[in-house]
Write a structure and sequence with these properties.
The chain is α/β, with parallel strands linked by helices. The chain has a domain at 4-150 and 182-212 and 262-271: Vaccinia Virus protein VP39 (Rossmann fold, 3-Layer(aba) Sandwich). Helices cover 42% and strands 23% of the residues. The protein contains 11 helices and 7 strands. The protein has a 7-stranded mixed β-sheet with strand order 3-2-1-4-5-7-6. It starts with 8 loop residues before the first helix and ends with a strand. The structure holds S-adenosylmethionine. S-adenosylmethionine is lined by residues 8, 12, 21, 40-42, 45-46, 66-68, 71, 93-95, 111-113, 116-117.
Length: 272
């Protein structure tokens, strides 16, 4: 059950994360007078960045879409200060976005969620139906083939080992491997390009960048429900989250590091 304690809001406010999403929003070049969809808007962090990029332009329409009623409620609260601007909130699966929108959009921005979608061809077809011809689709993700920097693998191994040990020692619990969410196949940057090109899009920008994630990022991702369930299946959220945080603190100390690198992929494509 979603709760405020384990929502995405805490992580999404990390400055490094806001900066990389702001970069994608800038690359999509949304302009005033357009209809812009913030797909999988979560708790509204990216919606706010779009509003900032448009300088609150009142003649633009921003449609923030997510399937989580809880995330949408939090997003509405977060964006209260911007209520003059036209932000509409729509509860929908991204896989049905074209049916959920009243009119076609000029730009679809989809941050950090494409890796959740199993049928990506269907998704891209839906997005092309949701866009006007010439409209833009911009997305980013760190969960692609190449997202994990090879030098960081030791960090992940140590982190998971220490977290499982803390969970056992502090709470007498262990993850239930049988409950593990099946991990989805990650696409390479070239596979993303091919996916877009076979579905009516032309890629106009493609950037891969290494982001240095500080300890705060790892501590905060340890409070996000989806991440906790993926790494510690079957464990109550509170105990799992605390153990992941203990594990990351011990790992940073033992490895004597201040940041862990992670790659992000940004793609902007135009509907042809
Ligand atoms: C990691 S958060 C990203 C939020 C925001 N876009 C950002 O980058 O800060 C992923 C979001 O995707 C939403 N989501 C995942 N699968 C979805 C689906 N099939 N349809 C609609 N929303 C989905 C989740 O509810 C969550 O809010």
């Amino acid at each position: 059950m979603a709760s405020r304690d384990f929502s995405f809001a805490t992580f999404s406010q990390n400055p490094f994360y806001e900066a990389l999403n702001a970069r994608l929003v800038a690359m999509a070049e949304p302009s005033s007078g357009q209809r812009i969809v913030d797909l999988a808007c979560g708790t509204g962090g990216v919606t706010k960045l779009i509003l900032e990029q448009l300088k609150g332009a009142r003649d633009s329409a921003i449609i923030a879409v997510d399937h989580s009623a809880f995330a949408l409620k939090q997003a509405m609260e977060e964006l209260k200060a911007h209520r003059d601007s036209a932000v509409q909130f729509v509860q929908s699966q991204v896989e049905q976005v074209s049916e959920s929108l009243k009119e076609r959009a000029d730009t679809v921005i989809f941050c950090n969620a494409i890796h959740y979608i199993p049928d990506k061809d269907n998704l891209v077809v839906e997005i092309s139906k949701a866009l006007n011809p010439g409209g833009k689709f911009a997305f980013n993700t760190s969960f692609y083939e190449g997202g994990q920097v090879p030098e960081s693998l030791q960090f992940y191994r140590k982190w998971m080992f220490k977290s499982a040990r803390a969970l056992r020692r502090e709470y007498g619990l262990s993850p239930r491997r049988a409950d593990k969410v099946e991990s989805r196949k990650h696409l390479t940057p070239d596979e993303y390009r091919e996916l877009l090109e076979r579905n009516n899009f032309k890629v106009v920008r493609q950037v891969e960048d290494t982001v240095m994630v500080p300890i705060e990022g790892w501590l905060d991702i340890s409070t996000f429900e989806d991440f906790i369930i993926g790494t510690m299946p079957g464990v109550p959220l509170k105990e799992a989250s605390a153990s992941l945080q203990t594990g990351v603190q011990q790992t940073f100390e033992e490895m004597n590091i201040t940041h862990v690198p992670r790659n992000w992929l940004d793609i902007v494509a135009v509907r042809v």
